[in-house]
Amino acid sequence: MEFQKNQMIKFKHNSKLLEKAQQAKPELKFEKIVPQRTVEIVPDHEELFGYRVAPLSHRITELNQMAFGKGERVILDLGDHHVGNFQIKIDSVGSPMDASLWLHVVFAELPVELGTIHEDYHGLLSSSWLAEEYLHLDVLPSLLKMPRRYACRYIMLEVLDTSPKWKAVFNEPLFTAESAVSLDQVSKLNSGDSVLDRIDQVSCKTLHDCMQDVFEDGPKRDRRLWLGDLRLQALSNYATFDNQQLVKRCLYLFGGLTTEDGQISANIFTQREPIPDDTFLYDYSLFFVSTLADYFERYHDLTVLKDLFPIAQQQLDLALQLMNQDGQIELNSKWPVFIDWSQEFDKAACAQAVTIYVVKQFLELAKEMNVEVKSYQKILNKLTNFAIEKLYDQQRGLFMSGAEKEFSIASQVWMALAKVLPPAENHALMETTQKELFPISGIATPYMYHHVCAALFETQHSAAALDLIKSYWGSMIEYGADTFWEAFQPENPTFSPYQSMAINSYCHAWSCTPAYLLRKYLKS
Amino acid sequence: MEFQKNQMIKFKHNSKLLEKAQQAKPELKFEKIVPQRTVEIVPDHEELFGYRVAPLSHRITELNQMAFGKGERVILDLGDHHVGNFQIKIDSVGSPMDASLWLHVVFAELPVELGTIHEDYHGLLSSSWLAEEYLHLDVLPSLLKMPRRYACRYIMLEVLDTSPKWKAVFNEPLFTAESAVSLDQVSKLNSGDSVLDRIDQVSCKTLHDCMQDVFEDGPKRDRRLWLGDLRLQALSNYATFDNQQLVKRCLYLFGGLTTEDGQISANIFTQREPIPDDTFLYDYSLFFVSTLADYFERYHDLTVLKDLFPIAQQQLDLALQLMNQDGQIELNSKWPVFIDWSQEFDKAACAQAVTIYVVKQFLELAKEMNVEVKSYQKILNKLTNFAIEKLYDQQRGLFMSGAEKEFSIASQVWMALAKVLPPAENHALMETTQKELFPISGIATPYMYHHVCAALFETQHSAAALDLIKSYWGSMIEYGADTFWEAFQPENPTFSPYQSMAINSYCHAWSCTPAYLLRKYLKS
């Protein structure tokens, strides 16, 4: 049976490495957030996702003057996105409570999640991720302390039933937000451009809300540690909160939980004892090398390097088993490459480029470790030669991918980042990419947009990179983002990888990289 | 506003009496119940309520061999009705849990409650009484301990969602049943008639499950202490469990919580600090006298009598304010009389008879207290004279009620119980009642059926009383009752006072009186 897949994959548990992960576990910081106002969510076809937020006239301090009977509801607005726990005092007015209170509580990052909560859900992900609870309160007054953690800006309290003889009254709502870091730690960008400054703020908030016990991909749903996300979060973290311990912890978690063959899972569940997932992604496994290299570059931490270098090498060796005699990476279905949520482009050239990108970082680490690198140098040449000779179309000045010889933006971007071509040609590659392949379409994630921007910056197209940051991340802000989203396709803004806007994550770490890109490239 | 009614009624809190109620609070007894089997609930139009229980072939010990994905469910059968708390171990099989478990748990006394749980609810009582919970479990394995108390025989575990990669597994379901008493304390009836013996057993079980911190009316819903129910529960208790403390506690609760005018509420909420309801019923208030008299007759407890006699007297005095110059009780809408859930008959004659019944018990108590009773004796005569002269139709040998001069069974029964007529004529009254008004129709509760049977026994119609017990309570058993019901109308068996079979209470204390009637009248 498909669902038993995992029980056939055996994992190692390296207790020495896992102990080091445990030691680096952060103490979370807590902040008390009082909702600022009550609002209504109104259907509005002119809004991106079909709903508008309409403030109500009374103040939040008047909440306890209102009584809620069967079918009545109130929506609290925290004023910003937060991650944490919620509590509220509930009392009754009227006759003594001659029935339980039957309460529906819904937490939403965006209005669309509240607007659609009473509709049937047909998304591809589990409906258990819809952030709603149904509760019976037998005795009032009570202090309702919700036991689960939520990611939200809006909280809807909907009275499903009382009795005709009494109503419910809410008072003292309180959200306790949590994170491993504090926004006070980050100095402002002060770019001189208010749009970029705002993008940077939202980026930092996004990263902040995803920095919990581990770098979570998104606090709304899985709360998992994904390697592809970790790599970008770590880069943004170095430029902002600079929390060394949390990156170290996550590296040790991945290093301590490989399969018996030494392969690193795409992600780890960390809510109780850490459990590696049975999902493996080619690029994500390789990014263990990359994340370790970035970490070492930032902190020169030889202890971590020595502990984890063999595991990094193992990822590369496993990947290189897919290289054929011509130097081509031949992917198979057991170990797909991610690159982006879009399935609209061929990803073979990307896989080739990512491998080159990672081998180069590996060679830097190997030098630090005094490891013999000749064989990897040879491999790098073979990989690069294949890319230039078989994938590069000299006439068009672009890389092609797959049997259909597709020229996708993603292929050019990853080849540019891997610096397969010499600097001048690399610059020209991204020049041609803009001329021939822009405006961008068919890319579904801020994750891939990050790599486009990074490639533009790395090839001295800073103005274009800044324009792209302003238009792409700026659009999300215009659409009402308090934190940046998991998926966003400007030409198709209601795209969901799961076929449901209600299940998308609207605070997703891999979208936080403007904080990194702007700090790295704007100031230089 | 209607729902603020209570805030205008001021209650006294007699702390001395309430302290005595607190001291008599029982220590509950707990019993561990392991479900005996798994079953299906199958729609079946030949069954009374439209559903049939179909046992599944596997054993309960095989439960942990089964895996439940989205939309799959299992129903556990406790084998009998119980009141208490539920726990179960839940684990996952397959890949690591990449989504929360979204679980629906439904508790049911009868199959109809499970069969209709997915239908829209349109009953008159709050939907918050439907015994269902929706739960998210973020981490498995977990021991799920449901925090609320339930009354049930069947427990449905319905997996609303997992993810395609894993399923839920249930193991070690455990129900911890609770009661103030143990069934072991009651000796068997051994009547020689297996139907009566079974009716007695089910009566004792019904009373047992309603004897908690107080005598509850029914453990499924309100769990309230109602005076009308208490009176009958106490009588059955004297004949079976003989728990003096619990009756004493309930008498002190009512006595300690009158209105400022001295009136006793129809019921008290006891889940936290006791709160009297703002519902007042004429007969229920008077039954404080009756319940105190029955208690004194059983235990000769002078302390309780001295503490509570003034409050008993107050109830009578308040009732007698409604007596006009002719000796007629004139009800008003602020203080209606209950008698039965049926609204199909006029209740004025019943109110007259209940008053006479209670005055007679009051006179007994007054003698014990050495209180001057002449005025009450005079009132009794006036009440009785009015009944005989104005309500009794000598030709028909029956009492009539109301402007329409109705001859209802309830009027005859209460006049017989009040012994308005001399013994021979009282015997004839119930003889005529049977001849002219039977077969019974239009009576909706075991509560009123109890009074019919009591009147038959008291007027030496024992055989008819036994036949009625066997046919009425026996029918409920044939329909699948593990405990006796709140409402049952044999000629209209799907009657619900709330227009929903799902919200009826199927373990209701006022239906437990065969245990009392059979022990009192069968053995004499």
C-alpha-based Rg of chain A, rounded? 25 Å
Oligomer: homodimer
In CATH, the topology of the domain at 30-179 in chain A is named Jelly Rolls
Nearest-integer average pLDDT of chain A: 95
* Alpha carbon gap, first and last residue of chain A: 55 Å
Largest interface: A-B, 48 and 48 residues
Superfamily at the CATH H level of the domain at 30-179 in chain A?
Galactose-binding domain-like
Total number of beta strands of chain A: 14
User: Per DSSP, what share of the residues of chain A sits in E-state strands of 2 or more residues?
Assistant: 15-25%
Number of helices of chain A: 15
* CATH C-level class of the domain at 30-179 in chain A: Mainly Beta
Helix and strand content put the structural class of chain A at alpha+beta
Describe it.
Two copies of one chain form a homodimer. Chain A has 524 residues and is α+β, with helices and mostly antiparallel strands. Chain A has a domain at 30-179: Galactose-binding domain-like (Jelly Rolls). Chain A is built from 15 helices and 14 strands. In chain A, strands 1, 2, 3, 4, 5, 6, 7, 8 and 9 form a nine-stranded antiparallel β-sheet that branches. Chain A has a three-stranded antiparallel β-sheet with strand order 10-11-12. In chain A, helix 6 (244-256) packs across helix 8 (302-320). The longest helix of chain A is centred in the C-terminal third of the chain and has 21 residues, at 348-368. The model of chain A is unreliable at 1-5 (pLDDT under 50). At the A-B interface, helix 1, strand 6 and strand 12 of A face helix 1, strand 6 and strand 12 of B. Chains A, B: It holds the Pfam family Glyco_hydro_78_N.
